[in-house]
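Minutes, project check-in
Item: structure for the 187-residue chain
Input as provided by the requester:
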Amino acid sequence: MGVRTHTQPRIQCAAIKGVRFGNNLFGKVVMSVILELWNKAMKLLKRIEFVGPLLMRICIGVLFAQSGWGKIHNLERTTQFFASLHIPAPHIQAVFVSFVELVGGVFLILGLGTRVVSALLSGTMVVALLTAVEYEGFAGFLTANETIYLVALVWLILAGPGAASVDAFVGRKLNSSNASVRLRDAA
């Protein structure tokens, strides 16, 4: 059994009294069970890792598509609001932002051009934070909806659209067609 140390307490269970966790058979069995469960959990998470980007794209995409739709259908009011913020060429900007939000939101839902669309929508959030959003202090800035949307968009720029997207589908098709071209050229 070895010498008992303060780092290896004895188990006080009648069935396994005197057995220590460590280099003995019981410790090895416990560790192998823990490792087995860990590996199964990691395999499961790997199989469903597409869900995170998919949910983010759908949520942010629906939000922007609705916002763009509302702006387009109230273009005069949107133009007046932009003018009140002293945004140059308010009507042109209102039309532009409305369509970027509507089309960009739909593209995000589909996972089409995700990184480019996220960059464009990030620009609208930066402008909103600089002109339209009022917040008090750093905590107010961090908890503003536009900041949260901006962080989500930056995450999509960095992480990409995920496997369940048009971008990934096109990428897979391009890679498979490039592979067949390479095989044909090698022959």
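Outcome recorded: The longest helix spans residues 25-47.
No further action items on this chain.
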